Structures
1.
Amino acid sequence: MKYFALLAVLLLIGSGSFMLLPTSIGKPVLSPPQWLHPDTFTSAKQQAQDTIKALQAQLHKAAIRTPALAESSNSLQREAPNTTTTEVFTWRDREGNWHFSDTVPEGLGRSVRIHRIKPINTVPVTETSPSAAQRPQEHFPPGDSVSDLLKEIQALQKKRQQHQQALDNL
């Protein structure tokens, strides 16, 4: 592995020397203008500027649309979000088992870790009208009863067994 690193360093020094050491005319053998096209830097700069302008235009459009979307949406809260946190205490006993609790155990002192957990993805409860809260009633056709349904199930099971026997005989 150390020979690989040494080889890499020697390769970098060897290739870099062509770009740094001057020749008899006083210039390096390879200078950036010789191995890079002159338009490379200008075209990259132009592409970056075009991208920044496009992003700024999209950001401006989004800033214009945001208040209208917030007003039209009934699901957005108008009040401040709930910022209360819950504390969870963790500790490891002598056998190496981890314990989690919402109360501090006595006598453990500094070995207890405190985790503060913020509520995530909570939605406040909204009142619904009594008619919307009721479940729709299922209507069965007249004459259907549990015994009739059981008879149909048994008939289907018998038919399935007959089909299976016919397939087994093939």
2.
Amino acid sequence: MKKLSIIFVNLIVFVIAASAIDVSNPFFDNLPVAVNKYLYVNFPDLKNVEWTTTIDGKYDVVFIAGKQEQEIVLNKEGDFIESKMEVANTDLPAFVVTRIKDIRNIKFAQKKIVANGDQQYVVELLRKNKLSEITFDSIGQVVAERPLSE
């Protein structure tokens, strides 16, 4: 009888715990269940969530996790496309700092991770009163550069 009572109590605890993780009751209305599930599983403590739907049907979600603002892009099936988070100039890899030479010219920097796991660093840089955006791959090669101001 004592074993049966212990099993019954464990079963009740399991049912209560399982009901607390019900992803069919989403964090956020108007988001697909798969997107909600991804957010719930990967960022259970997220706050200040805002999202938009892109032209091609992806979900661009911006939120605070811990003390860090993050942005992730997911498709409607909840598959990860990319993430972005701001990086302090002093936290940039040496290869980025070496290429830029003077980090005081950096106005904004972010780390970007794409679906295959590759990391990129996107830097907004002011040179000669012109703002430009440069994207570096994980080994320091420039993969994109574009002016942001004339």
3.
Amino acid sequence: MRRLATTFQNLYSRLELIFGVVGGWVAIALMFFTVVTTLLRYLLHKPFGATLDLTELAIPAIVFLGLAYTQKMGKHLKVGLLVEHLHGRWQLSILVIALLASLFFFGMVFWYGWAYAQQNIAIGDKTAAGYPTWPSTIMIPLGSLMICVRLFLQLISLPSSAKG
């Protein structure tokens, strides 16, 4: 059973890395797109149309796809001023409360984000320029589900890490 759990965590870590890299590449593509659009606007007086639409569609991928990987690496913002002065069970208790609150929050984001994505797919929602919004809206529940799994894995690994 432990081997299965280790295999799952290894595969899941790879998936988190892939999602994080995809989010990073979307950010790089968006930066390139913005530079090209700016150059077109100022040099040729012909900017690329729908820049705002494409930027807004890219933001959820940039933000949500890297959440789980960032959590795994411990790179999220932390409020350590109080917690770093606590020791033992108190510090562990605060960590468990924070993980549970995060799991609840991102569980709600997943739930409502999934409902919103389904609604966008059903009605065929499009931007003003005619781009479909569902690829963007599906990133929100997908990224939220990824971080929920990561938070759950961290929660179940706490007892073993608290022994040491």
4.
Amino acid sequence: MNQQEQQELQQMVLEMNILDARFKEMQQQLTLIEQQAAELQVLENNINEIEKLEKKKDSESLSQVGQGIFVKSILKDTNEIFVNIGSKIVLKKSPEEAKQFVKKRTDQVMNVRNLVMQELNNMVLNIQLLEKQIQEKAEVNQI
């Protein structure tokens, strides 16, 4: 193997390592996106449960104040849900409006998830192609 071929091979290996690192980053992003989608599903379920409590005014409930920390509370009005829409802006919404907001966010998250999945699939194809090219180049140069 001459020096130029060796440099080409090293360049291809470097490119594959970069692709592999990027692939792992994208997998981590996908995991976070899927966690966010799951949280939105729980939120939608919680809003549905709040709607069921509409007829049970002053019913006792547990309200989350932090991760895994709850306080007892009494639901006075289940017709108003306060939604943080971003930038510390909170709007009063009906349960139906809140569900629509959550659905819109879920759709956005799922669109991003689909884009990331598509990118991951493309990266797999690129990595496989590059691996094949490296293997062929290494085999040709060993003969």
